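Whiteboard transcription, Tuesday session. T.W. wrote the structure tokens on the left side:
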């Protein structure tokens, strides 16, 4: 005997039918809960929750005293943040979004620096060897600005030194930095300290994502607002 589902169930789309494997759904839900509450370690540039709130801006640093620790910052839910007085709701969403980005290793400018003292990281231009598999025939020839088989990169160095703390082969360039005129470092929020040294300093809003502004009432009301404007213009023209 073949069992057929009732017509009311048979007519439903497949994604609305009861799952045949509830265990898989439970495992997926548990995985999501675990990953969302993972607390990332602080970094040299972001050593505590006060610095994190200062960097992301939107005046969220005013709530630092309400959040007791780094662990609390990365474990509190939206409802708990609301109870602490983190308002308005868009600021909570912004904080939660930045929290998830940091958890996934996505930092703002300077976030990848490892040599930081009192919120200040020094940058220098150094030459590092080009990996053999990436070399071209032109790389074997020295130029006015670089040595053969080497390239220039912007790196974070210990303060007061001219070389990175790791061997040249292990050097990681600082993201978002560019080199101009052989040794001039340029990038967002870079402060020149001398002709060969630059600094990035922790400051309010260094990682700020600016809010957009609505044009003609935003996407949902744009057509309505523009239609009313055209009607008003036609009425004005008739007069």
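and on the right, the sequence the group agreed on:
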């Amino acid at each position: 005997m073949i069992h057929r589902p009732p017509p009311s169930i048979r007519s439903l789309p497949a994604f609305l039918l009861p799952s045949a494997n509830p265990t898989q759904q439970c495992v997926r839900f548990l995985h999501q809960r675990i990953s969302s509450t993972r607390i990332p370690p602080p970094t040299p540039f972001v050593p505590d929750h006060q610095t994190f709130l200062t960097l992301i801006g939107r005046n969220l640093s005013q709530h630092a005293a309400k959040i007791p620790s780094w662990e609390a910052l990365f474990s509190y839910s939206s409802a708990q943040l609301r109870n602490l007085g983190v308002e308005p709701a868009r600021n909570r969403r912004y904080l939660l979004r930045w929290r998830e980005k940091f958890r996934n290793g996505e930092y703002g400018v300077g976030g990848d620096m490892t040599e930081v003292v009192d919120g200040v990281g020094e940058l220098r231009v150094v030459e590092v060897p080009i990996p053999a598999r990436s070399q071209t025939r032109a790389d074997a020839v020295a130029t006015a600005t670089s040595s053969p088989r080497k390239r220039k990169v912007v790196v974070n160095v210990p303060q007061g030194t001219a070389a990175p703390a790791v061997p040249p082969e292990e050097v990681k360039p600082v993201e978002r930095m560019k080199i101009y005129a052989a040794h001039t470092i340029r990038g967002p929020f870079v402060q020149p300290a001398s002709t060969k040294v630059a600094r990035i300093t922790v400051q309010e809003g260094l990682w700020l994502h600016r809010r957009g502004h609505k044009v003609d009432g935003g996407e949902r009301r744009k057509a309505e607002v523009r239609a009313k404007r055209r009607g008003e213009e036609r009425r004005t023209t008739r007069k």
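Someone added at the bottom: Confidence is low (pLDDT under 50) at residues 27-35.
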